[in-house]
Write a structure and sequence with these properties.
The complex is a heterodimer of chains A (350) and B (281).
Chain A (H helix, E strand, L loop, with lengths): L14 E5 L1 E2 L2 E2 L1 H17 L3 E7 L3 H12 L4 E6 L8 H15 L3 E5 L2 H14 L3 E5 L1 E5 L4 E8 L4 E6 L6 E5 L16 E4 L12 E7 L13 E5 L10 H10 L2 E4 L1 H5 L20 E5 L5 H7 L4 E6 L12 E4 L2 H22 L1
Parallel strand pairs in A: 1-4, 1-6, 4-5, 5-12, 6-11, 7-11, 14-15, 14-16, 16-17, 17-18
Antiparallel strand pairs in A: 2-3, 8-9, 9-10
Chain B lengths: L1 E5 L2 E3 L5 E2 L6 E2 L5 E3 L1 H17 L2 E7 L5 H10 L3 E5 L9 H18 L4 E5 L10 H9 L2 E13 L4 E7 L3 E8 L2 E5 L11 H9 L3 E3 L20 E6 L9 E2 L7 H15 L3 H9 L1
Parallel strand pairs in B: 1-6, 1-8, 6-7, 7-13, 8-12, 9-12
Antiparallel strand pairs in B: 2-5, 3-4, 9-10, 10-11
The chains are: A alpha/beta (350), B alpha/beta (281).
The complex binds flavin-adenine dinucleotide (2 copies).
One flavin-adenine dinucleotide sits at the interface of chains B and A.
Keywords (chain B): Electron transport, Transport
Protein name (chain B): Electron transfer flavoprotein, beta subunit
Pfam families (chain B): ETF
Chain lengths: 350, 281
């Protein structure tokens, strides 16, 4: 039973990545997707395009340049003052118009508050399939379709979803799930401009104000290079100080499992896992963490994982890089000292 | 004012187990609950009802057992409940689901125009966050996702002002009714059911609509047929091939363990000390 694409859809060609930005800053998930999109486009032998929508000005052009540096061959640029801030109505019309005009076969967006809002509206308008929060994207070469894999039932299983006879095939991906591609400043590409054709009075929703988050002192786990996390095995909130001590020496962020967050030992922003943050640091130290699948899915893309657990059969040892079987309460201080000394010698060496 | 709240009945995921051999979900004995995210939206609707006066209709698409979710909503204070249930809906993805729910809401409108539709931010089973935006699009409602608070509602001007969570901050938005709102989790706490409401919930003559009653003529838009996405495979996550290298030094002194670990690690990952120094700089 060979699959035949509806001939009316054969004109849909190319892979698109929606470049999300806010307040002059591109969301890193856009470039993570660009790296993934590059692989898909190469497999299909088609161009990779970025989609940049926003207020007119040099900033939008800069995002196009960045898109080229991260792998795009071309960019669709839509500039209009009404798109200075994200609002569903103009962005849905803009992206839908672009898709209808230039017909990509695949359209990827970040699974952010903006991306999910926009993707759901655009997919409904285009009457096509949208796969949410994918962790893996591949091309099924047999029928050139996108095979999008996502966790189901709390990460205990994965499922692969295809959108065979609809175009474009749409998918969202959570930030930090894909790795950041290398930037190549020598790459360039062409820009195709398209106008939105809306005026402010067409748009019902108004942005009265934008209150930026006060990031001072707020944990920034998704982009931390080093994370020290503690789990229920730390036993008491006081013991969590040992986690903070090691983190301080390393300049690391502090993470935690869900039970620790629910017990109120640390704030919600520090939860790593399926219902918390996805992280991919260079070094992840896990103390008193069993390694449940819901925790693992948020951190197993870390480069090096050190696990400290008193139970030699703890599941975390199945995927950690290094394991220390023992009491976290005595091993953490020793590790803190060892790192402190190593850093001191590193400073002398410089 | 008329408010419709969409609620989904879901298996309590905390109690879901996967069969180790067949990789299938063992649903048996897993209790069904109202999708936890929907309760934040239901409570927000009930607060608007308390403050401005409203009729609150809860709407659910699902199997006949899903009536329990609707009765629960009535016990919290919803006025009416409609269960859209039909075998023809089986296998619906988010596009087909939003089509069915939008049709049902159009039917509900015939009785009394709807000013606000609430949906949950996402569910804990399908977990896509796509149905809310889909319904809004189909009914041409202003879409307001990730709302953290409703600041003001002016029923004369039909204007609503609210806070919406964006990636790096909060947008203060003003828009006109009718609109669709999805509430952020943790923004309120579901009230307790009162005795009279519990009695009412038990006796409430729940409306059950099949596809015809929900105003659906085009069956190619619902169920498997109306779903562009196809699940092609379900499988267990691959176990990482490599097990951790267990650091086990003779003396078992924590200090020696730590030093052994660092030595091994920095030999294998020579860039790591520099990375750590960089973070510290
Ligand atoms: C829908 C759903 C979503 C979830 N989302 C998340 C999520 O996002 N993030 C998350 O983390 N969890 C999540 N969970 C919970 C998850 O299933 C696990 O329950 C949780 O990760 C376990 O946390 P833990 O490792 O801290 O505790 P436990 O599993 O209790 O493990 C404690 C570990 O500490 C070890 N230990 C005990 N004493 C010591 C000692 N003195 N020294 C060293 N080790 C010691 C024990 O051997 C044990 O392995 C979710 C669950 C569900 C159902
Ligand atoms: C493991 C798994 C993965 C899936 N992946 C995808 C996918 O990637 N793409 C896709 O299109 N479909 C997917 N589906 C199908 C999808 O879950 C169903 O279409 C489902 O009917 C609605 O989607 P949701 O649960 O994700 O709802 P969400 O979009 O997360 O729900 C948002 C809100 O919409 C309302 N709502 C949703 N469903 C109902 C209902 N039946 N009755 C009343 N209100 C409702 C609720 O207020 C809910 O809080 C998946 C299903 C499963 C089980």
């Amino acid at each position: 039973r060979k699959f035949e694409l509806d001939p009316r859809l054969a004109s849909y060609k190319g892979v698109w990545v929606f470049v999300e930005h806010e307040r002059g800053v591109a969301h890193p998930v856009s470039w993570e997707l660009m790296g993934e999109g590059r692989k898909l486009a190469d497999t299909l032998g088609v161009p990779l395009a970025g989609v940049v929508m926003g207020a007119p000005g040099i900033q939008a052009r800069r995002f196009c340049e960045d898109a080229f540096h991260y792998g795009a061959d071309l960019c669709y640029l839509m500039e209009d003052p009404v798109m200075a801030d994200y609002r569903n109505q103009p962005f849905t019309k803009g992206l839908t118009d672009l898709v209808n005009a230039y017909q990509p076969e695949i359209l990827l967006l970040g699974a952010t508050t903006l991306g999910r809002d926009l993707a759901g509206s655009v997919a409904t308008t285009l009457q096509t399939g949208l796969t949410a929060d994918c962790t893996e994207l591949n091309i099924d070469l047999e029928n050139r379709s996108l095979a999008a894999t996502r966790p189901t039932f709390g990460g205990s299983l994965l499922c692969t979803i295809v959108t065979l006879n609809y175009r474009p095939q749409m998918a969202t991906v959570r930030p930090r799930v894909m790795s950041m591609p290398k930037k190549d400043d020598t790459r360039s590409g062409s820009i195709i401009e398209h106008s939105l054709g809306m005026i402010e009075t067409d748009i019902v929703t108004k942005v009265l104000e934008y209150i930026p988050d006060n990031l001072q002192g707020k944990p920034q786990l998704p982009f931390a290079d080093i994370i020290v996390s503690g789990g229920r095995g730390m036993k008491r909130p006081e013991n969590f100080q040992l986690i903070w001590d090691l983190a301080k020496v390393l300049g690391a962020e502090v993470g935690a499992t869900r039970p620790v967050v629910q017990a109120g030992w640390v704030e919600l922003d520090r939860q790593v896992g399926q219902s918390g943050k996805t992280v991919r640091p260079k070094l992840y130290i896990a103390a008193g963490i069993s390694g449940a699948i819901q925790h693992r899915v948020g951190m197993d893309a870390s480069d090096v994982i050190i696990a400290i657990n008193s139970d030699p059969n703890a599941p975390i040892f199945d995927f950690a890089t290094y394991g220390i079987v023992g009491n976290a309460m005595t091993i953490l201080p020793a590790l803190t000292d060892a790192f402190r000394q190593q850093l001191a010698t590193a400073k002398v060496a410089v | 004012m008329h408010i419709v709240v969409c609620i989904k009945q879901v298996p309590d995921s905390a109690q879901i187990r996967v069969h180790p051999v067949t990789n299938t979900i063992m649903r048996q004995g897993v209790p069904a609950i109202v999708n936890p995210y929907d309760l934040f939206s239901l409570e927000a609707a009930l607060r608007l009802k308390d403050e401005y006066g409203a009729r609150v209709t809860v709407l659910c698409m699902g199997p006949p057992q899903a009536e329990a979710a609707l009765r629960k909503a009535i016990s919290f204070g919803a006025d009416d409940a409609i269960l859209v249930t039909d075998r023809a809906f089986a296998g619906s993805d988010t596009l087909a689901t939003s089509f069915a729910l939008a049709s049902a809401i159009r039917k509900i409108q015939e009785d009394m125009p709807v000013d606000i539709v609430f949906a949950g931010k996402q569910t804990i089973d399908g977990d896509t966050a796509q149905v809310g935006p889909g319904i809004a699009k189909r009914l041409d409602l202003q879409l307001l996702t990730y709302v953290s608070s409703i600041v003001d509602l002016d029923l004369d001007k039909r204007e609503i002002t609210l806070h919406r969570r964006a990636e790096g901050g909060v947008q203060v938005l003003q828009t006109r009714l009718p609109c669709l709102i999805t509430m952020l989790e943790g923004t309120n706490e579901m009230r307790f059911a009162t005795m009279p409401n519990m009695f009412r919930a038990a006796r409430y003559p729940l409306k059950q609509w099949d596809k015809d009653a929900a105003g659906i003529e085009d069956v190619s838009k619902i169920g498997l047929k109306g779903s562009p996405t196809i699940v092609s495979k379900v499988f267990a996550p691959q176990a990482k091939s490599q097990r951790a290298e267990i650091i086990d030094c003779e003396s078992k002194e924590p200090k020696d363990l730590a030093v052994t670990l660092l030595t091994k690690m920095f030999t294998k990952y020579p860039n790591l000390p520099e990375e750590i120094a960089k973070v510290n700089a």
